[in-house]
Amino acid sequence: MSNPLIDMEKPDVIFCIGTNMTECHPVAATRLKKAVARGAKLIVADPRRIGLVGLSNLYLPIRVGSDVALLLAMAHVIAREGLIDLEFISNRTTDSEDFLEHVRAFPPEWAETITGVPARDIEVAALWYGMADKAAIYYTLGITEHICGVDNVQSLCNLALMTGNIGREGTGINPMRGQNNIQGAGDSGALPNNYPGFQSVTDPANQAKFNRLYGADIDLEKGVTKVTALDLCGEQIRAMLIDGENTLLSDPNRAHCEHALRSLDHLVVIDIFLTDTAQLADVVLPAAAWGETEGVCTNTERRVQRVRAGVPPPGKAMPDWWIVAQIAKRLGFQGFAFGSAEEIFNELCSASPLYAGIDWDRIDEGAYQWPVPHEGHPGTPMLHEDKFENGRGIFTRIYYRDPAETIDNDFPVWLTTGRRLASYHTRTQTGRSQGIDYLLSEEALEVNPNDVQAWGLMDGGWCQMTSARGTVKIRVKATQRSPRGTVFASFSFSDVPVNILTGSGYDPVTHTAELKVCPVRIDPAEEQMPASH
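-> structure tokens emitted (533 positions)
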């Protein structure tokens, strides 16, 4: 996030797109509710009538996968009405002239034919955002899990740059992270293109720095993504280590994923439970859970926080860092003689400019948000106040493109996937709680009541949902949350493996799967039909 969480209470206009915040980030969303109660205008763009819509002043019921068209049209209106911040553009951006000429070709009337959002509502959204003194953008996986995820994010950046809504209180571009410590994992170098601190692996100076630190020669090239790794299983990749992820259930195109993992000569899984993925492993190493280990997490607002063990781990379970270090030592790698999480974190601080001013002791109270470039620095709650780290903000010319697959006669219904308040991700943890099971005991397909009738379904009955990759059986739930022609389900339940259906494409830059768009066919199902095939 460019701005701290407290800033959610401060905008005049809040633009939420592709984020079901009240279900996926319910604690953070309380700050947004305070802003609305104070009088802030809330714009919500989402295919479904999610909980945020009930708080909104303007709802944009966008067709799945058409975000770029909406954002181009909003940029068109802002430019046409002269709502751009000329001083900010002149002092802090580049390529603005080409961009402003580019968006002239994309009026709201054009976007309406793609998004299904009335042109007049696109106009209002653009005017509110462009005229606000302080306007903030919030988004999550509904923006990134598309083949055009990078285009979507760059389109949001264009809106912020043209209006100067960045680097100030109550503004910014704020992605809400999808899981605990996703930010910290990236900070630590768990990316194929960056060393710790987002230092590029293709920079010879960085290569030399980490050659010295790690005592090994490192290739001057990007690593492979998980998508590529799964494609290479059984060929160039013969063994794999999966740590704390239920890949079989959370990844798209389950058939391909399962085939890939079964093609390995050796699969090792580190986890706290015997997940669907762990059941395929040759070796399962028991890990300590979050309340059983010492460590550090960095949250969505870049706040670096200590994690303290409340109880000892059961049986033979050990912290993930210890397990990985032991494997590395047995493989003959140097530099893994760590005796504590403290030693590992302090090495990270020595290697990352973002963490250079902190160490294990200084984060004791969670007071710092990176970057903290030197000791004594107070931290950086807000990014980009005076300048952009890489120089000037770059306007990007983006064009709309269809999802990897679009609806047709064979698969005439849009499926979009996501999460639910009562369950978390693949229910590895929440699925073992009787209380949560009482709140949400099974998955159901959210279908518009008119579609329930038109498709010969019954509320509470069963249907078959089929894509180009497979079929699942799922219970039907009639609800106005889904628009006609679009259905929704989560991927949380192993007995309703929705990700059998998904996996039609990936963003070419990030390799993020298009989990938010999948054409399907819906048919009534017999009760005795198996859950999936």
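Residues 5-176 form a domain with the Dimethylsulfoxide Reductase; domain 2 fold (CATH 3.40.228.10).
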